[in-house]
Amino acid sequence: MSENKYIPHKFVVGEKFEAELTFDNPLRSQSTKFPGKVNIWYGVKQLINHVNGFNATESLDAMIQGLRLKKGDKIVIEKHQGDTFAYFTLNGKTKDEIISGSAYNEGNTNSTSSQPVMIENIQHDVSMDDKRRLDTLWEWYQEQTNKGEDVTTDDLPF
């Protein structure tokens, strides 16, 4: 198999996807299929079926980043079908549980190398809609990490 070949996992409602992250951060690139959108690729250790990563939604990416999961951390992702849309859980936690802080207080029991993040400057308002919560979390993440600089292929180890 070519080292540049991406073989993504296809998420199916009701099935758990267990993997180990192979990089600290995802590969981000502009979508050629959907202008203005960003592709978010997480590399994982190859399994028997030769899957070596997955494309994350912005919501799933925010969950992974919110828990500060890094290379070597084990993850369990499950896709669920709600009344009007599909959503993911990460290590048994919903997006709302991760953003509200309950997941931070319990810690990341599947992590081998990182501690859960404590978000101190974000006020949690129960009436805040999901988009605003994700935007707030994303702004905080940008401030804490690369100060808004884009990751390029020169920054990646492969």
Distance between the termini: 15 Å
* Helix-strand category: alpha+beta
The number of distinct helices, counting runs of at least 4 residues, comes to 4
Major beta sheet summary: 3 strands, antiparallel
**Average of pLDDT:** 75
Whole-angstrom Rg: 16 Å
Q: Order of strands side by side in the largest beta sheet?
A: 1-5-6
- H and E order: EEEEHEEHHH
Count of spatially separate domains: 1
**What share of the residues does DSSP label as strand, in percent?**
15-25%
Strand tally is: 6
What is the percent of helical residues? 10-25%
Question: Per the principal axes of the C-alpha atoms, what is the gross shape?
Answer: globular
In the predicted model, the low-confidence regions spanning at least 5 consecutive residues are 102-127
Provide a descriptive summary of the structure in words:
It is a single chain. The protein is of the alpha+beta class and 158 residues long. It has one domain. The chain is built from 4 helices and 6 strands; from the N terminus they run ββββαββααα. A 3-stranded antiparallel beta sheet has the order 1-5-6, covered by helices on one side. The radius of gyration is 16 Å and the shape is globular. The model is unreliable at 102-127 (pLDDT under 50).
How is this structure best summarized?
This protein has 158 residues and is α+β, with helices and mostly antiparallel strands. It has four helices and six strands, in the order ββββαββααα. 22% of the residues lie in helices and 20% in strands.
